[in-house]
Amino acid sequence: MEEMEKNKYSIIIPTYNERLNIALIVYLIFKHLSNVNFEIIIVDDGSPDGTQEIVKQLQQVYGEDRILLRPRPRKLGLGTAYVHGMKYASGDFVVIMDADLSHHPKYLPSFIQKQIETGASIITGTRYVKDGGVHGWNLMRKLTSRGANVLAQTLLWPGVSDLTGSFRLYRKSVLEDVISSVVSKGYVFQMEMIVRASRKGYQIEEVPITFVDRVYGTSKLGGSEIVEYLKGLLHLLVTT
Amino acid sequence: MKHIVKILTLLVTLSALWVGLLQASIIPKSYTWLLPLYFIVSLGCYGLLMVGVGLMQFPTCPQEAILLQQVCTKFHSLTIVDHDSCFVVLDILLL
Ligand SMILES: Nc1nc2c(ncn2[C@@H]2O[C@H](COP(=O)(O)OP(=O)(O)OP(=O)(O)O)[C@@H](O)[C@H]2O)c(=O)[nH]1
Ligand SMILES: [Mg+2]
């Protein structure tokens, strides 16, 4: 509890066309982290829907020291968005989460609690355990996810049950170290992050989260993602 | 050590054991010859079983979705996010 107040947490949220979600996610973060020292860093890639206008209004409400808008001119991808956001992070710990409400801010206290209890360098949200779960996936999506997971568990022995989840808390120095050696993009990025961290010997702990697929906006998963995933798996086999 | 090396080492060790078994002929050779086949088949079965079990026990959270939907609706009725002005009336909620 005391440490929770001593540490500072930087929450990095990459956004692209999240006008309908960003205000709610920010509101929920403030609601669930009322006695925590934190800042929110929003990396918006020039969303045409006016996400940045909303963020500016949020800055008026909560203050520019609590909500940092660090935009980039155009859509440059998620991996580099984290690197960009991290440059401005002043916290000891960095939380990475999506803006689309599939990562609920009510889990943030359990991430922080778990880190304090275990002293781990990374806390990762996992959907495939008791108290975790997913909503909004059809049978095909579930099958792909299970297949991909069994394949990765059998070949990589990562020691983490949910490899592709992206709701995580990192010690800042660890995030900087791991992210610099990651080359993958898209789906594989999260898997490469956690596998490399595990190989480097960083302590990783898990907390259960539920994942409700995006309510507002559109989602995609196709054949090309599966090919990318297999390529990423092979890449991790020979490079880590 | 790269991970692929670990896996290959494991496979080489298994092959060495197998060759050892073949030469020692503790069990009939006809059985020993079939061992790699059994290995591959059981690996495949293990994979399919894990996917099957994972699929059957896939944790879902319908109540979370309902809760989130309620939060969304409440929030958007209290704030004006969805209009041309884009104005966010969060002060109401903060007080
Ligand atoms: N800054 C930035 N943010 C992005 C980019 N692509 C996606 N995002 C944001 O990253 C988060 C995750 O993106 P999603 O589109 O939800 O990706 P996903 O969760 O893998 O896929 P679905 O939710 O199934 O569509 C969201 O907050 C997006 O707004 C990008 O190129 N740049
Ligand atoms: Mg999403």
From TrEMBL, chain A:
Upper taxonomic lineage = Eukaryota, Viridiplantae, Streptophyta, Embryophyta, Tracheophyta
Localization recorded for this chain is: Endoplasmic reticulum
| Assigned protein family | Belongs to the glycosyltransferase 2 family.
| Glycosyltransferase 2-like domain ranges (all copies) | 10-178
Which class of enzymes does this protein belong to? transferase
- UniProt name for this protein: Dolichol-phosphate mannosyltransferase subunit 1
Its GO CC terms? endoplasmic reticulum membrane
What the protein does comes down to: Transfers mannose from GDP-mannose to dolichol monophosphate to form dolichol phosphate mannose (Dol-P-Man) which is the mannosyl donor in pathways leading to N-glycosylation, glycosyl phosphatidylinositol membrane anchoring, and O-mannosylation of proteins.
**Keyword terms:** Endoplasmic reticulum, Glycosyltransferase, Transferase
Q: Which Gene3D superfamilies match?
A: Spore Coat Polysaccharide Biosynthesis Protein SpsA, Chain A
Q: Does the keyword Glycosyltransferase apply?
A: yes
Subunit structure, per the record? Component of the dolichol-phosphate mannose (DPM) synthase complex.
TrEMBL record, chain B:
Q: Which UniProt keywords apply?
A: Endoplasmic reticulum, Membrane, Transmembrane, Transmembrane helix
Chief place where the protein resides: endoplasmic reticulum
Quaternary structure and interacting proteins, as annotated:
Component of the dolichol-phosphate mannose (DPM) synthase complex.
Recorded source organism is Dorcoceras hygrometricum
| Pathway the protein takes part in | Protein modification; protein glycosylation
Where is it found, in Gene Ontology cellular component terms? dolichol-phosphate-mannose synthase complex; endoplasmic reticulum membrane
**Gene Ontology biological process terms from the UniProt entry:** GPI anchor biosynthetic process
Q: Does the keyword Endoplasmic reticulum apply?
A: yes
Q: What is this protein called?
A: Dolichol-phosphate mannosyltransferase subunit 3
Q: Which family does it belong to?
A: Belongs to the DPM3 family.
Biological role = Stabilizer subunit of the dolichol-phosphate mannose (DPM) synthase complex; tethers catalytic subunit to the ER.
Q: Which Pfam families match?
A: DPM3 (PF08285)
Membrane-spanning parts:
34-56
Query: Key word Transmembrane helix present in the record?
Result: yes
Membrane topology annotation: Multi-pass membrane protein
Q: Where in the cell is it found?
A: Endoplasmic reticulum membrane
